[in-house]
Amino acid sequence: xxxxxxxxxxxxxxxxxxxxxxxxxxxxxxxxxxxxxxxxxxxxxxxxxxxxxxxxxxxxxxxxxxxxxxxxxxxxxxxxxxxxxxxxxxxxxxxxxxxxxxxxxxxxxxxxxxxxxxxxxxxxxxxxxxxxxxxxxxxxxxxxxxxxxxxxxxxxxxxxxxxxxxxxxxxxxxxxxxxxxxxxxxxxxxxxxxxxxxxxxxxxxxxxxxxxxxxxxxxxxxxxxxxxxxxxxxxxxxxxxxxxxxxxxxxxxxxxxxxxxxxxxxxxxxxxxxxx
Length: 276
Description:
- It is a single chain.
- The radius of gyration is 17 Å and the shape is globular.
- Strands 1-2-3-4-5-6-7-8 form an 8-stranded parallel sheet.
- β6 (167-169), α7 (176-184) and β7 form a beta-alpha-beta unit.
- The chain has a single domain (3-269), classed as TIM Barrel, CATH 3.20.20.
- It is an alpha/beta fold.
- The protein is 40% helix and 16% strand.
- The chain has helices at 3-6, 33-42, 55-67, 89-99, 121-137, 150-159, 176-184, 201-209, 239-250, 254-269; strands at 17-22, 45-50, 71-75, 104-113, 142-147, 167-169, 188-191, 215-217.
- Mean pLDDT is 96; it is low at 1-6.
């Protein structure tokens, strides 16, 4: 942490928090990952889910989970990369899951991204369906990426039927009405650091209105750093700012928010050896 960060008071909670979505395998953490994890641990961030976005990062997430007790892993192919999927891709992912059941707690992130369209939208939809089916076969909850694709995300989730093992719409970017439709399908809504931004009235409205039993917290580190460090590298420690903002919006204590969101994370992901 920089000197400025050291001098900025952090929110405090006596109840452990979970960062349900972070990309710890990315290069930006390579030089100081142990420090990043220790900073989180010492401020009661007790569990972090490191998210797989392709075969390589999925493998790295598993490796991190094996090295660090507080880290759990997911596997999957991000919508940006689905054009690279071959006949072997899903077999490899299934083998990773079969051989690392104690480390892997979810499947994703998967979904649709119509903002950048690095993969063809039609193929994104096809592979989203395929990965939803695979997650069900592997008995894993899904982590869903939705960027400028609300209508198609909802339609595919509805046609896919109930997800037996649940899931979460991560880094939620819709309005309260869309959030409720997702919740009605049995999924959770994850609130990122953008909720701390002054002009983020829509996500603040979502954070205020959805049931607390449907809410999760995330950093999406190294992206979407909350105020007061917007523009800098995000890290699990900063989920405290997101928790503080959501608690303030809802008019509850950060401890009460931590208790319920950590329980929600435990219910959805299982999280071996984490007991909120």
